Amino acid sequence: MKSGLKWMFLILGTTIGAGYASGREIWEFFGFESGLAILIFTVIFSISIYIIMKISYEEKTNHFFPVLDRLVGKKLAHVYDLLIVLYLFSTTIVMIAGGGATLEAFLIPYWLGIILFGISVVLLFLGSINGIIKLNTIIIPLLVLGLLFALTSFQLSHQHSWDFDLTKQHNWPVAFTFTALNILPLIAVLSAVGKEIKELKEAKVASIGSGIVLGSISFIYNETLIEISDSLSDYEIPLFAILEGYPFIVFLFMSIILWLAIYTTAVSGIFGLASRFKEVTKMPYWAMAFLLVLLMLPFTKFGFANLIAILYPLYGLINLYLLITILLFPIMNRLKINRK
């Protein structure tokens, strides 16, 4: 159970980043008539995570190519190998931009916030890999509790009634693109720790737990954003629209938690990239992290909201084939075994 929770926090730390925690990603995909979509997402996300962890456990992986090979074969594995690298690189740019945008709320210039964020990411890699995993076990519970507190207190104060009429759930297909978007970085991160997974019970705890937590937060978050949908266009970070009118201490706490959520996802992205290239470059993790952050900084000028609006829906569509292969993997694998 303890080990399973450790991986669950790693999954949540990878998923709840700048886009998700800020509310921008949720509103980009869900919105009105999305209750069923979030329920479907919860189920297929949990199944996908378990399959990825099972393959990582069986292959004892330390990077993502062997997992891709099992899922899509060698030829397509090379294509998705490149896609994962591009995805992690571009979405970590989004995280760095989000880190700068969050610090703007405290009157820190955007460019200075980005530099400070980049330095803090590199510093973590001066320690061991276990430090990255431990970071998630500390920050993610605080993030989940903080988000739930802000969202539920908003719901209680506004007396919003949740509408889950199945005849009005026309947005359900978005569950697949939303899951596809979030599954790609998790292949990279979970494959990097395949050697550390001791037994499949850990995968069951991590997959079910992370699915339930993300599904619950997504539903409450989406319902809250629906309540304030008219004012969302005025905010680059929708969470700040929810916190409007809250005491400053609450705003300060949630801003810090948001920044830390962005930080853990940026670290996970750099970790996934560094683990992929470590065997080729022979560079230590901190040097790889420094080089990667340096390469990413110029691209942050496009802005946080713009990057999410362009990149996230695009990756959600591109990754659909990979999601389908993950969900069908148990069936296809069983057929291969029977043929042998």
Automatic annotation (TrEMBL):
Presence of the UniProt keyword Chloroplast in the record: no
Which superkingdom is the protein from?
A: Bacteria
Q: Which InterPro entries match?
A: YkvI-like (IPR038728)
Q: Which residues cross the membrane?
A: 37-57, 78-101, 107-126, 133-154, 174-193, 205-226, 246-273, 285-304, 310-331
Keywords of the record, alphabetical order, are: Membrane, Transmembrane, Transmembrane helix
Can the keyword Transmembrane be found in this entry's annotation? Answer: yes
Q: Which PANTHER family match?
A: CONSERVED MEMBRANE PROTEIN (PTHR37814), MEMBRANE PROTEIN (PTHR37814:SF1)
Q: What is this protein called?
A: Membrane protein YkvI
Supply the source organism for this entry: Metabacillus niabensis
